[in-house]
Amino acid sequence: MKRIILLFSIAVTFQISAQTDAENLKKIYDNSLTNGMSYQWLDHLSNEIGGRLSGSLNAERAVAYTKEEFEKLGLDKVWLQPVMVPRWVRGTPEFAYIETSPGKTTSVNICALGGSVSTPSGGVKANLIEVATYKDLEAIGEAKIKGKIVFINRPMQANLINTFDAYGGCSSERYSGAREAAKYGAVGVIVRSLNLRLDDFPHTGSMSYGDLPNSQRIPSAAISTNDAELLSGMLALDKNIKLYFSQSCKQLEDVQSYNVIGEITGSEFPDEIIVVGGHLDSWDLGDGSHDDGAGVVQSMDVLRLLKESGIRPKRTIRAVLFMNEENGLRGGRKYAEVAKQQGENHIFALESDSGGFTPRGFSFQSSEAFLTKVQSWRSLFKPYLIHYFEEGYSGADIGPLKNDNIVLAGLRPDSQRYFDHHHAANDTFEHVNKRELELGTASMTALIYLIDKYGTDTITNDSGIKD
User: Fold this and answer.
1) Which residues have a Cβ under 8 Å from the Cβ of 416 and sit 6 or more positions away?
2) Which of 263, 325, 351, 438 is catalytic?
3) Known catalytic residue: 390?
4) Residues 124, 129, 133, 138: is their CA dihedral positive or negative?
5) Between the CA of residue 248 and those of 91, 121, 266, what are the distances in Å?
């Protein structure tokens, strides 16, 4: 009889808890879609501040603005965490053309890659060597490369449904191309933009010279996909054409900036910390709405939505707006360093850095047992068309927190349009859909609510209640 009563009690508790969770998720989604702040905040970040390259005035304006907005929410704690960041400046607009014969030229669209050196004041003009990857340079050899511009024409792989896999497959060309080409005496590098679409927007992004001495560093730029196709076609017809390009970018001394942090202190387990975040910096060509203004405002609104929905977290929920993800990851590393120094216990971290498109679900760096736990919540997310709960990459800024005790996760929106805008001049506010952004905010808040309520220990039934 006692066993029957116990089983009945568990079943009733299970039903009540599942019902309560469903009701709270509905409150969260309703509040985000009818009373959300993420789109309004993004409007200000994008249109009143603009691109927020690390070390820039706009980046510091974004720090001040987001701290002020955190303070308006009546959080338990808001603070700035100092971090030294690199300061690279683009300078005057880049210029390039293809020369088929003296005086006969065709202009093409390029942009300097972040961290690149400038060209000489008069620019660089030379014949080209086209390769699919910088690894081809070794076989070609110095004799054929020296004094030329290396053109790395590697398209993103179009038949990969996860476009981040396609990006990851060729991002090394942008990052390491100049370093490798310089070893063979090249005078410059032009890299095909990392974009699945054919258009006229060159896409910037970080590059590195590694330990190459300053005297051996060569300028590196991205060329739009349309113009990469044009240049490749013209080279196929005439190997003697030349490319001219000029850029005046430079690396300045590091400057101090800040991570912006706000938190709700846990009511029962304040020493267990759950982080949600995105990166406050962006590239300078557009206004950084998708990358990563969306993640910033979504993370801010997670805290607001919990308060608006009448949910008092048991654990400490901390929103971190990281500085310098794009060209250094200094903010993410500093946050993890301070957390370790202070002996903080982070149990879960969620990052949004994949754009403000329609959310599909989440990827997790976790144990198989925890993944099974999260997948047991599918029925709660089903009304909101959230279905993806899989093992996978989380995010760059929360990566330094990784240890044996923390679960890392990333919001996974639909990625098919993301690289149309990534690191380009068309990453602007008008390309963010309000409803899609707010659905992502609600999905993040819903996951944080469940993690806070049930922790990260293994569970065995759909409600999150231990048997």
Assistant:
1) 163
2) 325
3) no
4) negative
5) 5, 8, 50
Instruction: Give 5-22 pLDDT, tens digit per residue.
Output: 444 444 444 444 667 999
Q: 355: which 2 tokens? A: 């754009």
Question: Which residue's structure tokens are 């690894």?
Answer: 135
List strands edge to edge, sheet with 359-365.
77-89, 250-264, 315-322, 269-279, 345-351, 407-413, 359-365, 388-391
Read off the pLDDT of residues 393-416 as tens digits, 9 standing for 90 and up.
999 999 999 999 999 999 999 999
Contact 30, 63 (CB under 8 A): no
**Separation between Cα atoms, residue 300 and residue 244, nearest integer Å:** 45
What is the length of the chain?
A: 467
**Rounded to an integer, what distance in angstroms lies between the CA atom of residue 197 and that of residue 199?**
6
- CA 395 remoteness from chain centre: 7
pTM for the model stands at: 0.93
**Cβ atoms within 10 A of the Cβ of 3, count?**
7
Give the DSSP H/E element, type plus range, for residue 317: strand 315-322
What are the strands, taking DSSP E only, across 132-171? 149-152
Rg (C-alpha) for the chain, rounded Å, is 24
Edge-to-edge strands of the sheet including 242-246? Answer: 104-108, 95-101, 242-246, 124-131, 149-152, 188-192, 220-223, 110-112
Helix (H, G, I), strand (E, B) or coil at 231: helix
Helix (H, G, I), strand (E, B) or coil at 340: helix
Question: Distance between terminal CA atoms of the chain?
Answer: 18
Residue 191: what are its φ and ψ, rounded to 5°? -115, 135
HSE at residue 195, side-chain half, CA atoms within 13 A, is 28
What is the Cα–Cα distance from 37 to 266, expressed in whole angstroms? 23
